[in-house]
Amino acid sequence: MRTCSILPLRHLAVLMSALVMALVLATGGARATTDISEGSSTADHSKFKELKGPFATGPEVTRACLQCHTEASKQLHKTKHWNWDVVNPATGQKLGKKNIINNFCGSVVSNEPRCTSCHIGYGWKDAAFDFTSEENVDCLVCHDTTAKYRKFPAGAGHPAYEPMEWPAGSGRFIEPPDLAKVAQNVGPTSRRNCGTCHFLGGGGNAVKHGDLDLSLVEPGRYLDVHMSPDKLNFSCSKCHGGDAHAVQGSRYTPTAKDTTGIDIPGRTDGKRATCESCHGDEPHPATANVKLNDHTDRIACVTCHVPRFARGGFDTKMWWDWSTAGRLDENGKPLKIHDEKGREIYSGMKGDFAWDQHVIPEYRWFDGTVDYTLFGDTVDGSKVVPINKYGGDPDDPGSRIWPFKVMRGKQAYDVGNQTLAVVHTWGQDDTAYWRNYDWDKAVETGMASVGATYSGELGFVETEMAWPITHMVAPTEDAVTCEECHSRDGRMAGIEGIYMPGRDRTGWLDLLGWAAVVLSLIGVLGHGGMRFYAHTRRMQSNEN
Amino acid sequence: MKTERIYIFKRFERFWHWSQALLIMTMGATGFEIHGTYSLFGYESAQELHTSAAWLLIGLWVFAIFWHFTTGEWKQYIPTGEKLVAMIRYYLTGIFTDAPHPFRQTTLSKHNPLQRLAYLFVKLIINPAIWVSGLLYLYYSDWSAFGLGWLDLALVAFVHTAAAFMMVAFFVVHVYFATAGHTPLSHIKAMITGYEEV
Description:
The complex is a heterodimer of chains A (544) and B (198). Chain A is α+β, with helices and mostly antiparallel strands and 544 residues long. Chain A is 26% helix and 12% strand. In chain B, 61% of the residues lie in helices and 3% in strands. Chain B has 6 helices and 2 strands; from the N terminus they run E-H-H-H-H-H-H-E. Classes of the chains: A alpha+beta (544), B mainly alpha (198).
């Protein structure tokens, strides 16, 4: 009933987002979104006979690329982008998309063909994928400048090679890209290239990060001062770029405090994914409030300079409750419910959602260490389980207050084993959750894929996962104002371990202090009143 | 009793008094906003005003201390028991019955014994507490560099706030007693013109 009454609005919303998408893609294609000016490259790839094509598959293109860029795949083989597998040297934890579990779609393992549509390779459809294959590195997804190249959503990283229906049964088809044309138009990476995966993480635009979504393809200055074509027009690689395809900046091992200051080639570590690597640790000019530079030792730059996330017009997902998934409509299709703004708030495939935009981050102490709750780690189903714990302590000078998007939800866990469950969500077999909506089968297969045995008792545990907010840096005039934190119930209300003027006080001192002031006032007013009274009486008696 | 006009407060003294009054009121108004008591200028403006006024006041103080020592005026604040009881009695009873003021100002003794005590308390207790805690507060980020890493901001803020409350209480009483001269306006006139009617 509810869905019927809001249908027109919902259509409008869908139409609007389609329009925005079309605009974004069209402008992204028509205009260079990199900081490298047009014509600065010494090679015109459309003149290379190796790229004449035709190409039947992605790997065929890669083979052509490798004829000149002989070391490219070897470089990429060393990266997280390829392996989805990294060890955090501080904690020894094995992380990377391959190993962690999140509270969005869950885990990559057992769901590869779907999840690996965001892998920079071709063909990772199961655990047997050959990570040493050079031709299976996808050059185009990062270097396409035509905006026409797209991996098929369930193609294990391949694009469509013939018109393919998506979503299955929808009657809509994804057309195959012209691989030769794309190959002849490769260039430096752009925001749109990186955004192909990073803006769409968690199953759609804006879902996952909160500070990364399609609005950053062509952001206004209001949204991001660095990336906006109005002025700096930074590509992602301007900050995240590095030598030999090694991308800088990591959510697994972030830099909570960069004391190196401005990075000068040859003199410093050469890392430039932190704000400090360009701005230093005393970034505010002499004309600004002198106290601002005093904050940089305890407050991350982004705490003030990203006042809210999801500011580009798209809602980001804030809550995902898998426990309610599985409701089907009269045709046996998963039910979908949208709210009055057209946002999907229930999906039979995924459960209940809550969305929000212009969200004020949550603030926490952070020292750069992140500890994940991984497969096999014991969890207490009666408590909120942190998917990741950010280390930090007010007494540790290496900790600063950071902004986070905290994603909350409920997800499957194995009650008998007391571990988070690995769910086999997507697949063509009978046990995949989105095939038959049978949790037990899906979890049994999922758990087996990581070598665990499902206890047979399934529960849903509330989890939270923190995502540091670093993008959507607002112009100076929109930065968080002093009183938003220096006030009784301001943004820092939950931050412990420090005394903050405007927020904190010693209650009894205020009581005593005001009592003294009020008593002084009563005293002098009483004394003055008596003087006045005595004076008036004297005047009267003199007259008499 | 015959009234005569004597020159009590020299030009620098009057300038010092009134500019100090203005700066202290500014610091009080902005300080309690920073403390979170109310919202008036906005936190950032309050903080900037508070800091600027503090530096001006420090500058003024440097001059005033220099002046006090070079002119010997610091002796005005040496406590005395002479006429102390008489002053207390005057404020408790005499002032209501139009009794004569027990203290007669001279250029060598400008302040009555109660004033001497009050100003000495301000100069030796309230001001040092407020200045030391205030400067520490202002240079919070440099504590480690100064070897003061062990200090606690909550404690510094406590001292600063406590001293501020004392200053407000002093201000209230001081403003009132400005009307308690030989005539209600004689003290105030003296602080403006320099001449007191005694």
